[in-house]
Write a structure and sequence with these properties.
5-stranded mixed beta sheet; about 675 residues; single chain; mainly alpha; 5 strands; about 65% helix
Amino acid sequence: MRPVGRLLPLLITFALGLAGLLLPGPVGDVAAFVWLGVFPGMALARLLVPGSPAGTRWTVGVALSPLAASVAGWAIVHAGLPLQVAARMVGIGGWILFASGELVALSSSRAANDDAPRDAIAWAWLLGAAAFVALPPLLNPWTRVRSDTWVHAGIVLEIAQRGIPPQDPRFAGLQLNYVWFYNLFIALVDALRGSSPFTSMAVANVCWMAAHVAVGWQLAWSVWRERGPARAAVALLLLGLNAGALLLWPLWFVSAIHGQVTGLAEVRRMLSHVHFGTVDVILQLSAPFAHMVNPWDKYTVGTALGYAYLLGLVLLWAAVRWLGADASERGTWRWLGVALAAGCGTMLFHSVVGLSVIPVGLGACACLALLARARGTGALAQRSAWLAAALAAGLLVSWPYFRSISSGWSAARSGVVHHYFRPGWQMPWTLLTACGVAAAAAWPGLVRAWREQRTGALWLGLFALGMTAFACIVRLPQANEHKFVWQVFAPLAVLGGPGFPALLGSARRRLGTPLAVALGVVAFVAPSALFLNAYVRDPAGRTSAELERQPGERELYAWIRGHTPVDAVFADDRSRDVLLVEGGRRLLVGTPRAPDTAGFPADQMAHRRAVLADLYGPVASLESDAAFLDSLGAPAYVLYRDQDLAGHTPWRALEADSSRLERVYADSLGHRVYRLRRR
């Protein structure tokens, strides 16, 4: 490529960065993402894979940029500098290092056999997948704030306003017992220009979905080194999870025959709960009685899981590049650095992913080493050992962080006793129905890999087998083991590259073209179409507390932001978490869910709920409640809304004895705020 052509991506991204600094509104917010979502990772990619061609380097860089930015930002904030300063230092420093590397290496970069070439079909899948993820938040504001997105935005504001390590804003005074590097990254992006966390999370999802396809293409090419199988693997990776599950939908009616309630009444009840025009359609796209899994779900909600899956895919790619490389090829050891970074990142961003892919990866390395020694190939056994060391190092580096966020999950604190090793029927059924087509397509690929001694493909097969066993044995709180399903599916999809076209061709020959096409549409296209339709059309935002405001609420939240201390704690009835974001303040209790939601101490949660029940009961009693609020060690406020009180006036008790709580806000629409007088 000519030097000017090689500089074009640098110039385009720099122009986007300038637009992010100069343009107002959402357009500027979107453009500014490159400062932390691209530049730091490109600087890291120049260090990790300096001699790789542009496609490989950009794929590594974009995939690892949030990890690089958040780790650098954490170090700067930990050193005592403000978050905004840290964000700008990381963004500008990342661009300087990235640009310098590009200018210095204009004449280098030589493609190896494992470096995927440019491909129009792969680019079409990438752009289509990114557009698919972008459309719901662009067309339906409700999808920008729904589900976990709202709470994650509250944690982002917690970090932005009160630093790290964060407390849980839903439970004032408690260190957050959950991974928070994702929230730190979004907080850094927002700090560049005061963006909305919801915009930053949506842009991140689009970027990560594009990177997901790019890594899938690179990984599939590294395994097969042929365009046909690599293209098929990308298609399977995007559309193959739950392929054919819609055809099993009639199995839901089994419960009308053998359930607690049977007959037509149960059938009518079941049909009344099918909502194809709301986000609940996602529950219908998996097989009946299986765990809910979906290829798009975690890239259309503000959560760390989508990025952790991306890092898991990078880990598989790095493993294949390292194990399958020619021993004489220069610089292949750098892929161990990519594997280490990706493994560490899975732990920092979502430890459920890290604590599954790393142990299973270690097991795959051990099995491959034993197989290599049995065949007398000591070099491969040594390479497996080095890969295992890199994965173990990623786990070791991140272990102190994991220990800090997992300390609150002990049964003695949370009151929840959980048995982690407990096989059951639901996970094997989920794996069969969600990954069955991918597994059928993967079998010919595994046979070919064994015959042709494709080391990377064999390691992927061992990883998929180990991940299947892991998923069937390990049980997590709140059924979070369903997250393992995608980790089984991804390597199967890559291995299915050669077998997927053959599988489709076999169906066409046996069933005839019209029927095969119809079944193919139902199996592969309809689930995504139903998903997109529902996420664009869902009307829940018209009545949701996150988007709809009662009269006077906007003024109330503005007053809270402007007239209460940043470390204030609020009691608000009905465990609302809207105040986390709109008011930017911690809550006494901000979730109606159980203690195992985020390692909440069971005894303290019960006590706090009892305090709320008393404060918002028919008549509030002050002495014990005020003493408890005083024990929090932070400015405490009690918010009353007439809409919650059903005609009761518990606030009158507070006004009758103003020695402990004083009214500091009231409007004509039924909102009252009382502040605790500290002793």
